[in-house]
Design brief:
single chain; 817 residues; alpha/beta; 14 strands; binds adenosine-5'-diphosphate; binds magnesium ion
Length: 817
């Protein structure tokens, strides 16, 4: 005894592991059942081998990962969440070898029939397994947390980096735009400046020219004014001369008039003299007469006459002298007049010249003024431009300093972003590490998950009791009750019939008030197994009206009462989504069929034939021949298989199938189904980064009503239907039994249903059976039958290679819970 204990305490042998991993193939079902449970784990792992295709490097990495896992703190230097110190595992840590050794440990029982010892060994073993599982769950949790944390940090840093990059880019863009603008400004200012300077030079040139011109014109003006002064002097002298000439002229005219007056006086003197002559001649005549008369007197008179003649000659002489003088004077006057005319002409010419000068001087003056004004204007402009240039230069200096500052800040941001990039790459490598560890952890999780499920039993039975329906009387005594002892809580169910109490125990009992959600939670692990690449069958068994369809499909139109099928698909789509980040790509294919009277009917719309779904293209009836290939895949000829990508597509197909499903009438339930409904989801997943492949199948089967013939009172066609149903249901239990007993012959071919599901029953596939019960007292008999059937199946779970059938009691099963 002591030596046995020693054996148990010894660390598991490494050879076990290597033996296990080199065992070439799964043991055939014909092999005799062995008590050596742990040896089978190794074999089972080998069976799974081909599914989880991994490279050698992946395997060696796995070893690294496990050493990391076991060192605990190495997993995350900052938080060290993987340390198990003080955890429920009591600080125990496991290496991969530990786990493998634990899984492949052989009970050290010398006496095959010493059940007590074996039981103790088993319990010890289970305890260790539990520790291992707990340890692993904690490890997994810490992995996940660490990954989340890293991912969050990475996201945060990436976000910050992005933000920084964006802001620095923006800043750079802004600054470069400012620089470009400033450069433009500078160029334009410089252009302006050069233009202004050229203008200024031109203006200065023109100013100098203007000045020269001004000086010239001033000189000209001076000479002109000199000329003018001279001309004016000349003019004044000419005027004086004119005045004097005019004076002379006046005097001459006066002299002339006086001469004319004198002439007139002389002429009047002459005329008086002539008159006096005439008078004297008349006097002479009278004198002559008187002479004659007075001859005496004659002589005197003659004398008188002679004297008069002498005075007359004298007067004539005087007149001639005066006329000569007048002619002379007239010549003089003419001369003076001529001279005056000449002077006048000269004066006029001079005046014209003076006018011309005056005009010219005025013009040059205005020009000069204009030029002065222009030059002043230009000078002012020049000043203003110089000022402008100065301000522009100031601006340029400011802009240059700003540019320098911005260059500096750009450099800083660049340095910061470099740092961030470094940090990012560091984080990325850490994330990659974490992801690698996660993948390794995921593999381990799958393995442990499977082990947990295997420990729970590859065939499990859940019992579900539906609530009383409104039209069922609730007054009668209750037939179904639930034991409240610690042991049986949630697992036991008692049925009272004919005063007798029948007790049953299952893996789980759902009471009438259990919502769909709670039921699904219990099977979600099986759905996960399907995603991990296992073949899973979930059956709903029970009499018509007991809630099979409700359990599988749910209540139509009530979202929160969805059944297991829609919920499983939701979980699968969600997991598919979340596993994408680990490189997993899943393809999902759905087919739905019913088996009615041992013949298959496709429930999905076939794209090949639309009018008669039971006929193929060429008119021949569809065969729906079932074939299984070497890889354990099932093919049903002519069956429609649809690729699905969303839950919406699936619910559409489910609705379609629900409509196509055969319904028959029995006394029990008008619309109850008289056929087996098989929903099959094929899951194929590929991980491109780890080159792993998985092929899982999830079968959800709503079995036909299990009621006995007498109760439904069927005859004729109904009788045939019922017989077919009963046959296939008993075939199902026969198959499960044969598998459990590892019998050489498993009667898969006894019914269409078992043949169809052959690869998914037995082996390392997982089976769950819901036994649905109606609480109605009138159904008590049927309920008892269902419970007995279920108990028979439930007892089979120990038939799965790892457990022993013959001696296991319900109580011993408890410890596997
Ligand atoms: P079966 O498919 O076994 O013949 P059904 O699923 O059609 O039975 O259920 C019969 C009736 O009972 C249906 O009206 C269904 O809505 C109702 N029902 C079944 N199970 C439940 C439950 N758990 N809660 C509420 N109603 C239920
Ligand atoms: Mg139904």
């Amino acid at each position: 005894m002591a030596s046995k204990e020693e054996d148990q305490d010894r660390p598991p042998l490494l050879q076990n592991q290597s033996n296990a991993s080199t065992t070439p193939s799964r043991s055939p079902p014909t092999k005799k059942y062995r008590t050596d449970e742990l040896g089978l784990i190794g074999k089972k792992r080998e069976i799974r081998g081909p599914r989880m295709v991994g490279t050698t490097t992946a395997r060696s990495r796995a070893r690294e990962a496990f050493s990391v896992v076991n060192s605990g703190q190495d997993l995350c230097p900052s938080s060290a969440p993987a340390s198990n110190a003080g955890s429920e595992c009591g600080g125990m840590e496991f290496t991969r070898e530990d786990v493998d050794a634990l899984l492949s440990e052989k009970p050290k029982s010398k006496n095959k029939f010493n059940y007590k010892e074996r039981c103790e060994n088993m319990q010890e073993y289970i305890k260790r397994l539990r520790l291992c599982i707990k340890w692993f769950q904690e490890l997994e949790d810490s992995f996940l947390q660490e990954q989340d944390r890293l991912r969050n940090t990475l996201n945060y840093v990436q976000q910050r980096l992005d933000e920084l990059e964006v802001s620095s880019k923006n800043k750079e863009e802004e600054l470069s735009s400012i620089i470009v603008e400033l450069r433009k400004n500078l160029a334009s200012a410089q252009e302006k400046l050069t233009k202004e300077q050229a203008d200024k030079l031109a203006a200065v040139d023109s100013l100098a020219k203007e000045r020269e011109g001004r000086l010239n014109s001033e000189r000209l003006q001076a000479s002109f004014s000199e000329d003018l002064a001279k001309a004016q002097q000349e003019l004044s002298s000419a005027n004086q001369r004119i005045l004097s000439i005019n004076d002379m002229y006046k005097r001459l005219q006066e002299y002339n008039t006086s001469l004319q007056q004198y002439n007139c006086k002389l002429q009047s003197d002459l005329s008086t003299a002539s008159e006096s002559l005439k008078k004297s001649e008349t006097d002479k005549a009278t004198f002559v007469e008187e002479l004659s008369a007075l001859r005496g007197h004659h002589n005197s008179l003659k004398e008188q006459f002679a004297s008069v003649k002498v005075s007359q000659d004298e007067a004539m002489k005087q007149k001639e002298v005066l006329s000569n003088e007048v002619v002379c004077l007239r010549g003089d006057l003419q001369q003076v007049r001529d001279e005056r005319d000449r002077h006048r002409v000269q004066a006029e010419a001079l005046t014209a010249e003076v006018d011309k000068y005056k005009e010219f001087t005025g013009k040059s003056c205005s020009e000069l003024d204009h030029l002065t004004l222009k030059s002043n204007e230009l000078e002012a402009k020049c000043l203003c431009q110089s000022e402008q240039i100065r301000t522009l230069q100031d601006k340029l200096i400011v802009a240059e300093s700003r540019l320098e500052v911005s260059d500096l800040s750009a450099l800083e941001t660049r340095a910061e972003s470099e740092e961030q990039k470094k940090l990012l790459s560091e984080l990325q490598t850490r994330l990659a590490d974490a992801e690698f560890k996660l993948i390794e952890g995921d593999k381990l999780r799958k393995k442990l998950h499977n082990t947990i499920l295997e420990l729970k039993g590859n065939i499990r039975v859940f019992c579900r009791v539906r609530p009383l329906l409104p039209d069922e009387s609730s007054s009668e005594a209750k037939v179904i009750s639930y034991p409240t002892s610690m042991e049986a809580l949630g697992r036991g169910i008692d049925l009272a019939q004919n005063g007798q109490k029948y007790s049953f125990m299952f893996d789980k009992v759902f009471m009438p008030d259990s919502p769909q959600e709670d039921v699904f939670v219990e099977i979600s692990q099986l759905v996960q197994s399907a995603l991990d690449g296992y073949k899973v069958c979930i059956f709903a068994y029970g009499q018509t009206g007991s809630g099979k369809t409700y359990t599988m499909m749910g209540r139509p139109g009530h979202v929160d009462e969805k059944g297991l099928i829609p919920r499983s698909l939701e979980q699968i789509f969600q997991t598919k989504q979340s596993l994408q980040s680990q490189g997993w790509k899943y393809e999902l294919q759905v087919s739905m069929l019913e088996i009615y009277n041992e013949s298959i009917r496709d429930l999905l719309p076939s794209n090949r034939s639309s009018i008669d779904s039971t006929r193929t293209e060429n008119g021949s009836a569809k065969q729906y021949a079932i074939k299984h290939d070497a890889n354990g895949n099932t093919h049903v000829s002519d069956l429609t298989v649809v690729d699905v990508r969303s839950t919406r597509e699936v619910s559409y197909l489910l609705n379609h199938a629900a409509h196509s499903r055969s319904v028959g009438k029995t006394q029990m339930n008008e619309h109850s189904s008289r056929s087996h409904f098989v929903f099959t989801l094929r899951i194929s997943g590929v991980n491109e980064s780890t080159e792993q492949q998985v092929q899982g199948v999830l079968n959800l089967i709503d079995l036909a009503g299990s009621e006995r013939l007498s109760k439904s009172g069927s005859t004729g066609d109904r009788l045939k239907e019922t017989q077919a149903i009963n046959k296939s249901l008993s075939s199902l239990s026969d198959v499960i039994f044969a598998l459990a007993k590892k019998e050489e012959h498993v009667p898969f071919r006894n019914s269409k249903l078992t043949y169809l599901l052959q690869p998914c029953l037995g082996g390392d596939s997982k089976t769950l059976m819901f036994v649905n019960l109606s609480p109605d007292p009138s159904s008590a008999g049927e309920s008892l039958c269902s419970l007995r059937f279920a108990a028979r199946v439930n007892a089979c779970e120990i038939g799965v290679p790892r457990r022993q059938t013959s001696t296991r009691s319900l109580d011993s099963r408890l410890s596997y819970g």
